[in-house]
Design goal:
The chain has 86 residues and is mainly alpha-helical. It has 4 helices and no strands. It has a domain of 58 residues. Helix 1 crosses helix 3.
Amino acid sequence: MNRPEVKRQDALAAIRFLSRPAQSVVVKELRAAYRRFQGDGDLVGLLAAVLNLGARYASGGEAARKPTRRLEREDLQLICFDHLCS
């Protein structure tokens, strides 16, 4: 937050996102972004990657925005499995 190219609001949003538990896919993408940062030192790029991850995964991503259809009795099918022993 002490760097002039970093906006304070963006840094705080990134810190809030990073302080929560993350799914493994988020951790993998975050590690890849950090490796890129270690190579090129682009702090703004790292911050943008973290904010992008926060936008995609903080609220559950696209799956949370899609309304789910209620499961009805007619949707269920009875499936029977026989186990044969010799």
